[in-house]
Amino acid sequence: xxxxxxxxxxxxxxxxxxxxxxxxxxxxxxxxxxxxxxxxxxxxxxxxxxxxxxxxxxxxxxxxxxxxxxxxxxxxxxxxxxxxxxxxxxxxxxxxxxxxxxxxxxxxxxxxxxxxxxxxxxxxxxxxxxxxxxxxxxxxxxxxxxxxxxxxxxxxxxxxxxxxxxxxxxxxxxxxxxxxxxxxxxxxx
Length: 189
Description:
The protein is 8% helix and 54% strand. By secondary structure, it is mostly beta strands. The chain has a single domain (3-187), classed as Beta Barrel (Lipocalin).
């Protein structure tokens, strides 16, 4: 196989990457609630990529559901309450410990040398439900690194997740979650 068409393997480096979820409050008492930012701390990912043929790329990202933590400034009692409800009632991490995304197709557009805009279609496995999820990202190749950044939204109800509520729905979490990522992956041997 021609060297340029040989796939390169990249491994996501969580120390250099950022992955978070924005949650918004809803209901009559929404102004009294938190709109927490949740950081995803424990994840890994592998990317097989031919830089000159992005469409032939494939990647998988795995997240440990219990690694989602609220990073906003709030009192420890509220933080502990959100974590307990998120792990036990919403994500059910004891039964379903992993979240995974695997690409099935990629469409790319060269923006300028070594920089692409990509539309990824893949399978997201969340809370025991697998659904097609599209992600738009900016991808850049710089030396031995690949960097991908972007965001996407999803509805918790599509994944049979219980929406967090307080006070008989007077304060609740909106169904839509926004994920923001800036991932750095290093070329492996």
